[in-house]
Design goal:
Two copies of one chain form a homodimer. Chain A is of the alpha/beta class. Helix content of chain A is about 35%, strand content about 25%.
Chain lengths: ~300, ~300
Amino acid sequence: MSVVVVGSIAFDSVKTPFGQCEQVLGGAANFFSLAASFFTDVKLVGVVGEDFPQNHLDVLRARGIDIAGVTRAPGKTFHWRGEYGFDLNEAKTLKTDLNVFSDFKPNLPVHYRDAETVFLANIDPELQLLVLDQIKSPRLVALDTMNFWIEGKNAALKKAIARVDMLFINDAEIRQLASESNVVKAARAIQKLGPKTIIVKRGEYGAVLFQGERMFYVPAYPLESLFDPTGAGDTFAGGFLGWLDSKGQHHFDDLKEAMTLGSVMASFTIEDFSFKRLEVLQHEEIEERCKTLQQATHSPNTVHLRRPSSS
Amino acid sequence: MSVVVVGSIAFDSVKTPFGQCEQVLGGAANFFSLAASFFTDVKLVGVVGEDFPQNHLDVLRARGIDIAGVTRAPGKTFHWRGEYGFDLNEAKTLKTDLNVFSDFKPNLPVHYRDAETVFLANIDPELQLLVLDQIKSPRLVALDTMNFWIEGKNAALKKAIARVDMLFINDAEIRQLASESNVVKAARAIQKLGPKTIIVKRGEYGAVLFQGERMFYVPAYPLESLFDPTGAGDTFAGGFLGWLDSKGQHHFDDLKEAMTLGSVMASFTIEDFSFKRLEVLQHEEIEERCKTLQQATHSPNTVHLRRPSSS
């Protein structure tokens, strides 16, 4: 089993009400890889600049992440600058320097092309299509996107979405993509474009999964101290797809477990800047939070109504 | 078993993106009573004006609701005018005419005073205190409030909150009440003021219950067609407390069931203006939605992590 992920590897400069950091390691594919590596083998595709630290590549390698697909190009690494208000639900992008990412053409190493699971992180949908063309016969392909591509490359995005099994998207974005304010209806509409499974990310309110007529809700793990939500969505996807890939089966109960793992993994990312918390994370902590989340959502009894004593 | 509820009985004029209505029946105590009447005996306390239709009082009576505590006063019934945007999460109040409500001094009929369960709906906390003084030895007292009282009658509100077991409040309000942006921390802070149990209402995202260190999440029931959220919170409380009163026990698993019932009952209110949907609601429909909601939240397996095959 293995997951191929393609997406950004970046430097982030982030300001939240709780602190700020300059030029720390970030990027969707980076967060995804670290999260998924707790459960399965990960093969990373991306590009970094000459300024990218070798010791971070060593950290990835030490976690068993295959970085044969990471190329180093002349110039600077992709840089994102953003900030969050108190509710931490929405990032405000202050600046995006694509740098080496602007000429990125993903070219998968031969041993990546047999991967069972593929995550097309939030990048230009034309690059997502390029990657899809290079994968032989994946069992599960998932895609993430954002408002920027919904507005700017709608046709290419819809073409990519039509070819995937699963879409990760936040609630504002799915409303925009479907031109429909009701999220349930929006999900049904997007399912008709191709992906059988839609996961709508809802920030501090967790996430909801749609598959056919079935749904599954997971709350965000309750944290008393949140620090920086950057990468939470990609960590969610990493936990989700890493878990699913490791199980090797995709029954609805497996998807439910994956939702729990996604939410739990995201909760660790939020507790500190960059990957700091993921880097010291232990398997026991993951299991503990899964247990807490299940207890906080599972109502064991079937409801049987009785008539009131008088009416 | 019975629940005493005190609060507004009103006419509402509401505009939503899906339609509008003028002078329809509303009011927190009204929504609460109708919802709770599906599960237990309800004793209603409130005031109406000379313009209040007798046939609505007949509807309440037909549902077994005791209206001995509803007085008719000279003048007009309380009137609320509000509107909602597309997300339906927050009402914008355009006009509030207190009318007969401005001189309301609740005086409970003698046979109300033995009630096991009490719901102090969102009214002036000084009136909530007045009602508390008249109840002999309730097993469970719950209170709802809003930003208007948090700002305008903070001391009286805190006095009332100190005397109740359970607080219903929305997420913006608990942040305001506790002066704390983190909802988990805010709930812990408010628990210290008195109520052991806090239910934070989160609009389209459902609700979360805090009791001691334990939590329980329920999503909003997924609806493809929402119409008018007016009364959803009070319907939630009616389903919740009506169910709990009918069970006569308050273990944590009972609270979990009550959360499900609250969410399900609220979903019916949202499907139409005023009480239209509640008036035709059948017990089978309630059970059906409880089942759907449990399936959409219950992940049956315990998560056991395996190490990745190579690392």
